[in-house]
Automatic annotation (TrEMBL):
Keywords: Lyase, Magnesium, Metal-binding
Record flagged with keyword Manganese: no
Phylogenetic lineage: Bacteria, Pseudomonadati, Pseudomonadota, Gammaproteobacteria, Alteromonadales
InterPro entries assigned: ICL/PEPM, Isocitrate_lyase, Pyrv/PenolPyrv_kinase-like_dom, Pyrv_kinase-like_dom_sf
Protein name: Isocitrate lyase
Record has Cytoplasm as a keyword: no
Reaction(s) this enzyme catalyzes, per UniProt: D-threo-isocitrate = glyoxylate + succinate
Cofactor binding mode and count: Can also use Mn(2+) ion.
Residues that bind Mg(2+): D184
Native species: Ferrimonas lipolytica
One biological process term in Gene Ontology: carboxylic acid metabolic process
GO terms for MF: isocitrate lyase activity; metal ion binding
Amino acid sequence: MSTYKSDIDSAANLIGSKGSSWNAIDPEYAARMKAQNKFKTGLEIAKYTAAIMRADMERYDNDPSQYTQSLGCWHGFIGQQKMISIKKHFNSTDRRYLYLSGWMVAALRSEFGPLPDQSMHEKTSVSSLIGELYTFLRQADARELGGLFRDLDAARDAGDSAKEAEVQAAIDGHQTHIVPIVADIDAGFGNAEATYLLAKQMIEAGACCIQIENQVSDEKQCGHQDGKVTVPHEDFLAKIRAVRYAFLELGVDDGVIVARTDSLGAGLTKQIAITNEPGDLGDQYNSFLDGDYIDSAADIQNGDVVIKANGKLLKPKRLPSNLFQFRKGTGVDRVVLDCVTSLQNGADLLWIETEKPHVGQIAEMVNKIRETVPNAKLVYNNSPSFNWTLNFRQQVFDAWSEAGKDVSAYERGNLMSVDYDESELAAEADAKIRTFQADAAREAGIFHHLITLPTYHTAALSTDNLAKEYFGDQGMLGYVKNVQRQEIRQSIACVKHQNMAGSDMGDDHKEYFSGEAALKASGKDNTMNQFG
């Protein structure tokens, strides 16, 4: 017996046990409402999606072509439409996630208004967005199942048993829109206790995967900006442990932690690490400090700090900002140490923030990490902060030059020019961009590819195109030709915006509650009927 039919029988038995006062309750309607609300709490979602991520991680370990992907979404509606689109085009949500970007929360969700990515926004706005995303995804489930229930009724009314069986099978085999969210907790928004408290809120809202970075909380910067300041490993590990405790406290035993290192682009530290003996973690961190080795107390000026590092007395360079500087050229070694240390102390996945999308550069670091942790794998930011066109055209230019191919027709510094768009070099660069995710998953250990803030850019681009035409000489044709007509022809579900907003579900409920007395919105005069 299907779950749906079993739920009908269970509801019928319960209603029958309550006597005549429940006679107006239809057991099938009760079963439908239960099916349309599969997940009752955020914790149920977190447990369900954590299991999905763990299975996907194991599948990737066995076959790197089975990498996962996500797009950053700054509103529940955007996340919902993304998953509806994925189900429509690919018939499955497998290996497709959502990403929650701290950058977009700061820029779009703060009550202060648009903010830079510096952890100045209200930290509770992060968990609020997780809850909102899952509210919209649950509504997508309810809407889709509601349509199937209507189809089931129509098949019954028509006496079409074959169609009824087909729809029943679709109901029983329905795949939810609920997928894992990789959620950005920035640098933890304070000390480890603050990190723990926010992690709990995020998990309770549904997050099965929390990404945390090794920057100083009160000096946090976007990974693609200057001025990044890292913390000693023990400080970062305390926050990783805080997130793990939050998962365990709430019963999400296989919750996923992504440890992000910004060390490749961060040349500063706020603290000198505590060290107890040569070669320990603090000593390794301090060994990267820039400074001058000294021989006597005469070399120490008022206010100088002196430590023992690499077996000698080191006077670290302290900047006017009271920050300490790392030696140039140590970024890769610091990244490798960060990653190995994080994986050995409770993290599940890594995030290495790089300055360009280069498979070889990423692979170099991952291979060094895998010498110690063989199954190390990454979440990677396919960032809009990269100029992908210029980066890959320059990579092809450099490869051709190294191979002795004639590149005299190209000016390396001007490869972004539209003049090169139809060139052989541009075509090869585009081919490398197209396969970047598969190549990096295979060669550089990237398990999950995401774009942090794509929907920020698509919203701006589509709005610009509409405004240009609607307020220009195209008038209403600017909307009809480029928006509505395309929605109809591409079967975009929200062309029926009343339905997408829940009007049909509301009508169903009115019928459940009021029977023939229900005042419905979907009658013959509803203009949405123009869309078939």
